[in-house]
Design the sequence.
C-alpha cells in the first residue's frame, strides 16, 4: 500500500465485504423486526449491529490489507440501507423523533452520500484518505469524532433531547455537509498530497 492508500485491486469476495454484508443483513433484519413487533430492544440491537459492524469492516479492511474502492462504495451504500431501516423503525416507535430524523435522512441519504462518493474523483481507496486531498473536509466528515457526531449523535439527540435541540443539531450537521460538498466540488482533480 502506498502513502495515498492505493493498493492493488482485490476481489469483492474478501473479509471486510463479508462483514459489511453480514452487518447490513443483520441490522436491516433486526430493524424490520423492530418495526413489525414495535420492539425497542430489537431496534437497539439493529443500531448496535450497524454501528459495531461498520467499525469492524473498516478495521478488517485496513488490518488485512483488503481495502478496495469497490468495498468503500459497498460500505457507503450499506450504511444507507441500515440507516433507512433503523430510522423507519425509530420514527414508528418514537413519533416525536420524526422531524430531526427527517432532517438527518435528507442530509445522509443525499448530501452525505454524494460527498462520501467524491473520493472517486481522485486515486483514493476511500473517504478515509480524503485528508490527502483536503484535510479540513476530512476532519469535518471522516475523522473518528466527526463520524460519531455525524450519525450516532444525531440519533441519540433525537431520542433523548428536546426536539428543537435535535433538529438544530441535525441542521448544523447538514450545513457542514453542504459546505463540505461545495468545497470538495471546487477542488481540482489531480494527484493528491501524500500526507493525509
Sequence:
Amino acid at each position: 500500500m502506498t502513502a495515498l492508500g492505493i493498493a492493488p485491486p482485490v476481489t469483492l469476495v474478501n473479509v471486510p465485504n463479508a462483514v459489511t454484508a453480514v452487518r447490513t443483513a443483520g441490522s436491516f433484519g433486526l430493524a424490520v423486526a423492530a418495526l413489525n413487533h414495535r420492539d425497542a430492544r430489537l431496534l437497539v440491537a439493529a443500531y448496535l449491529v450497524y454501528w459495531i459492524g461498520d467499525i469492524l469492516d473498516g478495521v478488517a479492511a485496513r488490518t488485512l490489507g483488503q481495502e478496495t474502492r469497490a468495498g468503500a462504495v459497498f460500505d457507503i451504500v450499506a450504511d444507507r440501507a441500515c440507516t433507512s431501516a433503523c430510522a423507519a423503525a425509530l420514527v414508528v416507535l418514537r413519533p416525536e423523533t420524526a422531524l430531526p430524523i427527517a432532517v438527518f435522512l435528507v442530509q445522509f441519504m443525499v448530501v452525505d452520500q454524494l460527498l462520501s462518493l467524491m473520493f472517486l474523483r481522485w486515486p483514493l481507496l476511500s473517504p478515509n484518505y480524503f485528508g490527502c486531498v483536503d484535510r479540513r473536509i476530512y476532519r469535518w466528515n471522516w475523522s473518528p469524532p466527526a463520524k460519531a457526531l455525524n450519525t450516532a449523535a444525531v440519533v441519540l439527540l433525537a431520542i433523548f433531547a428536546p426536539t428543537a435541540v435535535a433538529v438544530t443539531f441535525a441542521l448544523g450537521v447538514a450545513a457542514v455537509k453542504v459546505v463540505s460538498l461545495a468545497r470538495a466540488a471546487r477542488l481540482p482533480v489531480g494527484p493528491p498530497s501524500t500526507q493525509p
